[in-house]
Amino acid sequence: MSKNLNLRYDIINQIIDSILNELLISPLPSQSALADLYNVSRTTIRHATQYLEEKGIIEYRHNIAYIRRLPTLEDKCLYIHTKKSHHNHYERIENYFKSAIQKKHIKPGDEFSELALAKNANVDIFTVREYLIQFSRFKLITALARGRWKLIEFTPHYADKLFELREMLECHALNCFMNLPKSDVRWNEMKILLQEHRALRDRIVENYMDFSILDHRLHRLILSAAENPFIDDFLELLSVIFHFHYQWDNSDLITRNILAVEEHLALLVKIISRNDLGAITELKRHLQTAKKTLLNSIKT
Fold it and tell me: Superkingdom, according to UniProt (predicted)?
């Protein structure tokens, strides 16, 4: 019973947020439509709308729910797991979307719906929309009518502009990293990454797929020194494009990863030895290689 009650509280709070953010406007969709939007049963929606009606937030006229007043934070249910639940939902759609691209279930040029993603990832539709909007800002996907989206084809021109921005951001972040105090724990994290790269180099042929994890960790660690949330958003974009091989021909992935591990090792050695100029040089070399391999791998 407590699980069902928690779910009802969660949905009530999500609907309140949706009204406040004008994602839901008057009149509200039918209970059946709301159940689809939030990926819950109509019974759960019925309990939620009853609560909103009792609070005077909505009123029914001819079986249609109209917003009577804007809700306030005081109208929300006291439910300590709501934020955690939303965070879990966000992680769920993030993991599903990346997996769908990696497995080519969603390919460049494909159209897909928010509702289908919500059902497949087992989250509500507004979490899906919030997640997709960040990629639309980078022109990776475009919004179509009625909750439909399209995955845009990745062109050489886009790749060139992307790497131009990537080099500026990562070189800035690396400069910030090289100026971190010796006591900063990230220096030790960098040493651990060096050891893990050396271990992977010894077994790269058998475990070449493990490189993407180390690659993400290294670049995330470098970018963390900038302490800039906009750069963090950019890292998420890179994660979708590079680590999940968006539109890549993976036939020579082993060869590419062998080379990339060596370039990472050269970069890590320069960073740990606090060779500023050498580190920047190795980073630019690595990014140029990544740019070349991506351009060669895009299916045109």
Answer: Bacteria
